[in-house]
# Entry
Amino acid sequence: MNDAKQDQKVHWAANTYDESMSFVSSFGEDVLSWLNPQAGEIIVDFGCGTGDLASAISSQGSEVIGVDISPEMVERARLKYPHLTFHRADGMGWKADRAYDAVFSNAALHWMKDADAAVDSMTAGLRNGGRLVVEFGGYGNVATIIEAVRETLQANGREDAFVMPWYFPQVGEYASLLEKYGMEVRFAQLFDRPTVLNNGENGMKDWLEMFGTAMFPKTEQYEMGLWIEESTRRLKDKLYDQGVWTADYRRLRVLAVKR
Ligand code: BEZ
# Structure
């Protein structure tokens, strides 16, 4: 990954993320029930963002280790939850210095395009019998948004600027990958989860500014603004209704156990 792309991806404004993208953690609470954290367990929150779900896990009496690549996110997580442990590290290379009972990840793994490296990272320190509970963007996730951005770039003669920044696998592909790393997949499901964006009529613009620009990372600021506007316009018929934007999220949720 080149430096420009890396910068684009990891330097999110943590306060904007907390304020405008709060649905990320809210939906994560549902996945958390699959984790079922127990008192005394050591649990890794892989791609922990600003730490809200790590805090929820720790409230069950488990010890949590949060890991995230973004310095801003980790800084904010430490400020919000000073009693918890957070490491700033790339999930495609991080290795724990101690064994843990479970690894949890919500809305993060689609950013780790080297999925092999991410699975290696998550499972290396997992004890035998330990569980992996993850949810992230699955095959077809935000396909309507991606298509609108591609059409926008094409209409402006700039298809060359497009980068696919995410990994959205099928069930079979991801299950096979986990098996390669000694995991037994107990449950895997790909499902539609239309997601209402915060901030009313500005919801899609906010989303594209925060996440969508990863699709055209090496672009001048003024051009980015124009492409966001044009993409938003193209999406209006499809994803906007009565003041509300709904993104076409599809989730892949997996529960697996280390053999
Ligand atoms: C997601 O959670 O599915 C997602 C978030 C940001 C960019 C792409 C996908």
